[in-house]
Design brief:
39% of the residues lie in helices and 18% in strands. The protein contains 10 helices and 8 strands. Helix 5 runs parallel beside helix 7 and helix 7 packs parallel to helix 8. It starts with a strand and ends with a helix. Bound molecules: phosphoenolpyruvate. The site of phosphoenolpyruvate has 13 residues, from strand 8.
Amino acid sequence: MKKIIIANWKMNPDTELEAVSLTQKIDSENLIIAPPYPFLGAVRKSQKLSKLGAQDVFWEAKGAYTGEVSVTQLKSLGVQYIVLGHSERRILGETNDAVVKKVKAVVSLGLIPVICIGDGLSDKIAGRSEVAVMDQLMPTIEALKSFKSGKIIFAYEPVWAISTQKDAKPDNPENARNMILKIKNKVLDEGLKGLEFHFIYGGSVNGLNAGGFLKYDEIEGALVGGASLKPDELTRILKI
Ligand code: PEP
């Protein structure tokens, strides 16, 4: 099976010119590029093989919501995938409730949510990683029960493994696989008929360690932050 690689550029690069140049260097068939909002149009125009993603969205369809962006607006630019509930957004105050509203808005319009769930360092230290992950997973499962079709990606991203966190280390691939299996089993137990699910890992994935994660059938891809801004690194991941 082809793996899904999602390049989350976060708030990088600085200019549209750099975004276009980076796209041209990494453009590849099973890659989804999620640039910052202002560069979506330019990246789309430079893509020949990859697909377009966004890093967030607002749940309302239109109206007086200064600074927000709707699913329809993103769709009109060619966006197919939308990252939701990224830990960097949760740290800024995004709640499970907001993530649920966004999931519903995205699936309603036929786009694919990439729902990020993960345990923090304090959860890991306290031995409550699974509880923390399930606390984020369950509300989205409830939200998905009203849909009869759609494709959903869950990204297991332990917060302590994200490269910008202090002393970040990637998860051990075996642990990541085990947590993904727990997430997958929970999702499948709920009998959500008609929906197609995929499960990926994110957290300090690079050209050197990607093979350790992607060798497992249960890890269907990777959400890549820092390394996605380095064409050589990303190319190595894509080759794997
Ligand atoms: C991310 O931002 O989702 C991520 C996994 O970042 P990094 O690869 O830099 O750890």
